[in-house]
Write a structure and sequence with these properties.
Bound molecules: uridine-5'-diphosphate-xylopyranose
Strand content: 5-15%
Largest sheet: 6 strands, parallel
Oligomer: single chain
Number of helices: 18
Helix content: 40-55%
Amino acid sequence: MLCELNHQVVCIDTDTAKLKQLKSNRIPFHEPGLEELLNRHLSRGSLSFTSDTGQGVRESDILFITVGTPSKSDGSTDLSQIKNVAETIGSNQNGYKVVVNKSTAPVGTCEKVHRWILERQPRKLPVDVVCNPEFLREGKALYDALHPDRVVIGAENGKAARFIRNLYDAISCPKMMTGLRTAELIKYSANAFLAMKISFINEIGRLCDAHGVDVTDVATGIGLDSRIGSRFLKAGIGWGGSCFPKDLASLVHMFEQADLSPRILEAVRQVNDTQVEYYLRQLEERLGDVRGKTISILGIAFKPDTDDIREAPAIKVIQALHKKGAFLKAYDPVVFIHRAPTGLPVTLCSEMSETFEDSDCIFLLTEWKNFLHFDWKSHRHRMRTPLIIDGRNALDQNALTQYGYIYYGIGRVYSKLASL
Ligand code: UDX
């Protein structure tokens, strides 16, 4: 994104194998559009890679920290990678630097970063720390980076804040200048709010099941209220991924540290944590005991357009069904090619059509486009029991029902109107 905005960028990393891959124009994960962009900027010379951290620090005016901030078992955030980078910057500092933290980290982290840098400086040098959180979605990271809803810049020094704001001059969107701690909390609050919207509609989905109401209509009806908004109201198996679960755990931990009870956040997590169980009950109501039955999983990634399986609902479903004695088959168009998960108790299918063969249920867990546009009609007869559990409310219920499938999606109602 910075290269696209005409800045010269050097990526510094100690993982030489990864750097070698990137230098030869290969992206180590699945993200549509990224390889073309890498290729363009490598050949233009606007992007380079180095494992020489000292040189990278000395030759840059602005340093972005973009390392992982994993959860510890108590929900707190492991800041060791950020600390490591801050200390490396301090030890190699040779003049004024602006250090921008992009890694999601608890309130107060930027102040720590400032301290960690100062502690390692060989002599006293000026340094400003800025918090510039990212709001990118995996799979859409490129689009989100170039078309953000807003840019948030947290700083304690106006000069440093303006310096970073200028980087985004070519992007037209609101640019919010604020304090360091505020910027840090904006990031967590944004993710928690989005997760809350999903858990909310998932809970309403359960009530829709009880009353024969269609949750997609309820979502449309409330989403048309501009105070609510229509996005992140798709009911389904629940949220996963590398951000929502970790960031909610971290936010809950921040509340606890402040001696406060995060009641809404706990409920948001509780609905999500029980969603797989809820779906399994629906499955068993339709299929009976799953022991010895064959269940086919469509989609492993935590959402489409990524090969990321961190906290993916599919993994939880596979483990739970395996424990109940089901025989499992699985197909994902990308996950098994890019990052084969080891130890998953499933038989891998190399094509979607194989999942139908002698299967008692197809359980859709990632709404990959090719699943939606598949020829479901011609494959129904290959299943032993034509049961579809749509974990993403993504399939055409009316069409599938007409083809003779038994369909379940949370809060979905067969629409007589749509079939007229
Ligand atoms: C999220 C935030 O959207 C992004 O701003 C932040 O920077 C990182 O975390 P990401 O984890 O890539 O991005 O995925 P996102 O598209 O937000 O989806 C998260 C989870 O929620 C997925 O499992 C998705 O399937 C689920 N989801 C999303 C729903 O179940 N329903 C919805 O309506 C939207």
